[in-house]
């Protein structure tokens, strides 16, 4: 296998890897879906545990992530696809697979995406505010901020980002675009948020993080994708006795998964309380600190 090029080397650390592998309870011959493939951090270990038995199906909306994952996740029993996990049914139909035995979702943002200066996910860049996972479809974040009303932007920052100054930040965005000073780059948005919330010694202030999070969720319609998957796709395509392991990083996502797994006609909930990262993992990988894992088994 060729060595990964520098542009395709990953800096992402898979979150709660031990817990994920334990909860997936991998056995010979299973069909396993990694619905958020990323750079293959979880999948490369899943593939090893499968011991070339069964099939691993990896999905991601971001082609650059698939390119990275292909360096470490490959083989005759591996199938990688650029699409949302909400489109799993279409992929399974193409593969002539009716149901699968295990599904993993890691709803966190990859460190590789944050580090890409052209994507607009990270706070430390001066690149364009795009934030789309799939840059071939939809509208970038900078366009959303050009067209959304003050009320719509307030809702995005408040509901998706839990930002207490959402209304003030939204008003400043609209004020600047009316003065032909539209926000188009990541560093411009960071400066705007700081101008509203006050000076801080932290470059990555909590308000900046919450605003970026809210925009990313809105641009990619992440909650719509998750709702469709939990209510329509997963119950239909996970085989009876199969397991779903879902990692969330946002309170809304966690609540959606929790509520879905409460349906006893569909699920046997295996985690009354979500699993959390160990203190040692948080020290080694601070981005894991808000991770929660919920696990459920498809009812027979």
TrEMBL record:
<feature type="binding site">
    <location>
        <begin position="40"/>
        <end position="42"/>
    </location>
    <ligand>
        <name>S-adenosyl-L-methionine</name>
    </ligand>
</feature>
<dbReference type="GO" id="GO:0070475">
    <property type="term" value="P:rRNA base methylation"/>
</dbReference>
<dbReference type="InterPro" id="IPR023397">
    <property type="entry name" value="SAM-dep_MeTrfase_MraW_recog"/>
</dbReference>
<dbReference type="Pfam" id="PF01795">
    <property type="entry name" value="Methyltransf_5"/>
</dbReference>
<keyword id="KW-0489">Methyltransferase</keyword>
<comment type="similarity">
    <text>Belongs to the methyltransferase superfamily. RsmH family.</text>
</comment>
<dbReference type="InterPro" id="IPR029063">
    <property type="entry name" value="SAM-dependent_MTases_sf"/>
</dbReference>
<dbReference type="InterPro" id="IPR002903">
    <property type="entry name" value="RsmH"/>
</dbReference>
<dbReference type="GO" id="GO:0071424">
    <property type="term" value="F:rRNA (cytosine-N4-)-methyltransferase activity"/>
</dbReference>
<feature type="binding site">
    <location>
        <position position="60"/>
    </location>
    <ligand>
        <name>S-adenosyl-L-methionine</name>
    </ligand>
</feature>
<feature type="binding site">
    <location>
        <position position="113"/>
    </location>
    <ligand>
        <name>S-adenosyl-L-methionine</name>
    </ligand>
</feature>
<feature type="binding site">
    <location>
        <position position="106"/>
    </location>
    <ligand>
        <name>S-adenosyl-L-methionine</name>
    </ligand>
</feature>
<keyword id="KW-0963">Cytoplasm</keyword>
<keyword id="KW-0698">rRNA processing</keyword>
<feature type="binding site">
    <location>
        <position position="85"/>
    </location>
    <ligand>
        <name>S-adenosyl-L-methionine</name>
    </ligand>
</feature>
<protein>
    <recommendedName>
        <fullName>Ribosomal RNA small subunit methyltransferase H</fullName>
        <ecNumber>2.1.1.199</ecNumber>
    </recommendedName>
</protein>
<dbReference type="GO" id="GO:0005737">
    <property type="term" value="C:cytoplasm"/>
</dbReference>
<keyword id="KW-0808">Transferase</keyword>
<feature type="region of interest" description="Disordered">
    <location>
        <begin position="274"/>
        <end position="300"/>
    </location>
</feature>
<keyword id="KW-0949">S-adenosyl-L-methionine</keyword>
<comment type="function">
    <text>Specifically methylates the N4 position of cytidine in position 1402 (C1402) of 16S rRNA.</text>
</comment>
């Amino acid at each position: 296998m060729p060595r990964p090029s520098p542009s395709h080397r990953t800096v992402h650390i898979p979150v709660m890897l031990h817990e994920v592998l334990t909860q997936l309870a991998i056995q010979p011959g299973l069909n396993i879906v990694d619905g958020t493939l990323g750079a293959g951090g979880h999948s490369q270990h899943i593939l090893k545990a499968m011991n070339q038995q069964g099939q691993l199906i990896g999905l991601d909306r971001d082609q650059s992530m698939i390119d990275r994952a292909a360096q470490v996740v490959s083989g005759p029993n591996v199938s990688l696809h650029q699409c949302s996990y909400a489109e799993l049914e279409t992929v399974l139909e193409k593969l002539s697979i009716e149901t699968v035995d295990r599904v993993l979702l890691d709803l966190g943002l990859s460190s590789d995406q944050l580090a890409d200066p052209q994507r607009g996910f990270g706070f430390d860049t001066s690149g364009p505010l795009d934030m789309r996972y799939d840059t071939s479809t939809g509208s970038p974040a900078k366009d959303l901020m050009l067209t959304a009303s003050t009320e719509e932007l307030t809702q995005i920052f408040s509901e998706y980002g839990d930002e207490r100054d959402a209304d003030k930040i939204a008003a400043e965005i609209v004020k600047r675009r009316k003065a032909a000073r539209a926000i188009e780059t990541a560093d411009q948005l960071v400066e705007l948020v700081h101008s509203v919330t006050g000076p801080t010694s932290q470059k990555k202030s909590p308000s900046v993080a919450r605003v970026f999070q809210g925009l990313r969720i809105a641009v990619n319609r992440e909650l719509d994708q998750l709702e469709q998957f939990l209510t329509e796709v997963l119950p239909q395509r996970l085989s009876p006795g199969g397991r779903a392991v879902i990692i969330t990083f946002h309170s809304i996502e966690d609540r959606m998964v929790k509520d879905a797994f409460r349906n006893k006609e569909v699920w046997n909930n295996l985690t009354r309380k979500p699993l959390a990262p160990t203190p040692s993992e948080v020290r080694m990988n601070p981005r894991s600190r808000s991770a929660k894992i919920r696990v459920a088994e498809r009812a027979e």
